[in-house]
Amino acid sequence: MIKTHASADPETRPRTSTLDRPTLMRLAATEYDRLGAVLAGLDAQDWTRPTECAGWDVRAMAGHVLGMADMAASIREGRRQQKAAIQRGGVFIDALTALQVEQRAELTPQQVTERFQVTGPRAARARRRTPALIRRRKMPMQQSVGGQLETWTLGYLIDTILTRDPWMHRIDISRATGRPLTLTGDHDGALVGDVVTEWAARHQAPCRLDLTGTAGGSWTFGDGGPSIELDAIGILPHRIPARTRYRAACYRSAVLMDTRIDEIADHIYRLSTLVPDVAPGGFTFNQFLIDADEPLLFHTGPRAMFPLVSAAVATVLPVESLRWITFGHVEADECGSMNLWLAAAPHATVAHGVMGNMVSLNDLADRPPRDLLDGELIDLGSKRLKHLDTPHVPHGWEARVLFEETTGTLLCGDLFSQIGDGPAATDNDLVAPSLQAEIMFGYTASPARLAATARTLADLAPQTLACMHGSSFTGDGAQALRDLAAAYDEQFPVPDPAA
């Protein structure tokens, strides 16, 4: 399947379903049947297996999908669940899904299966009978998608979202149990295509998207842009909290997000994607693109973000012109899409320290990486980067930073991580928000080693600190690094072994 679309205009109308209603209702009925068959095929051990939704095993996930089907099948039950979730307080979808699991916890796996096989078809019928007058109404609360508020119609929720949820959880259960996953083009391919169309309308960037597998297809949006090839089901998000996971089931991970571009130093661009719900106010994942004679990317982002980030890069320079792929250490958010970048940029080379290449990248990278010695320079033509080993700072044996000498920009990875969605660059203090993130996540392997390394990096006298998570810093970077070191010394004192 190959489809060509012009880039959509920014959407101001309420969100509605993009497929025709007979197709949507066919997809709903089929998905309930397929999920019921999956539940019926599980054995006793399968029900206790953990899923990629944090805190949910297969049994809890089945309780949730049964609860959603119960809600869709009966107006009275739907109102009861909504009232109970509101009374519980907090974020509504958190409260709702938790209640669905708790209130069905006493059912045996057989009872859950039998009830779902009865309730699923009832839910499909009830959704099909929802009058057009109701479906055209706007939902009372706006929905946050990638940090932007959208207005949805009830029809979009009833016709589209309530099918994506069991579909996503059917895939979850297959992954958790190792059971075969039934995929067909007319069903799963239609669901994937619907999500792709929404995704393209939201991110507003030209690209060609090739999704492989039975549920895949090919789409072209606008003129130009990168060519992206991914597995249609494999790019679905992994190992994220239940509420975020639920929303991802509704919109897919890439649809949730948008990547913003800002030039934080001369020809150095920050590509920032806010991921909601990782932390209060969200959590940004930032890549840095250096536009030079030999363009360089620092951080690749995870696989699921590749379509967004590559589309952002393409607004600055052709993706295929990238010469260097770099990152601070080996971790999904830093290098998860490394091989996708190597495929998109045929002349690009991964460059990392000797330790990182030896223990990981010689095996993980699709092309041999280049070894960099501590202090070695990469000459990009108009820019020069110095590789500096920082083992275990903030974490990872192979950790390092890069220092761009002509602009005084320190690509400092996870140092100075901050939660929330701040400006692209700031001259405000980053030490306090960085300590807040440290206390929340505990991401530093050795606070004492971090303090010593920060003082060493201060000797570079950076003018810009390019941070992986949160705002970049412009100003006296040396003082900021010394202040960070002092704060870690105070917050995490090293015990006196003689005491």
List the helices and strands and how they pair.
Elements: E1 2-5, H1 21-40, E2 53-54, H2 58-73, H3 75-88, H4 92-102, H5 109-128, H6 132-135, E3 143-145, E4 148-150, H7 154-177, H8 185-203, E5 207-212, E6 217-221, E7 227-231, E8 240-241, H9 242-251, H10 253-256, E9 259-265, E10 268-275, E11 283-290, E12 296-298, H11 306-314, E13 324-326, H12 332-335, H13 338-344, E14 349-353, H14 354-364, E15 370-372, E16 377-379, E17 384-389, E18 400-404, E19 409-411, E20 425-426, H15 431-441, H16 447-458, E21 464-466, E22 472-474, H17 477-491
Parallel strand pairs: 1-6, 2-8, 5-7, 12-13, 13-14, 14-15, 19-21, 20-22
Antiparallel strand pairs: 3-4, 5-6, 9-10, 10-11, 11-12, 16-17, 17-18, 18-19, 21-22
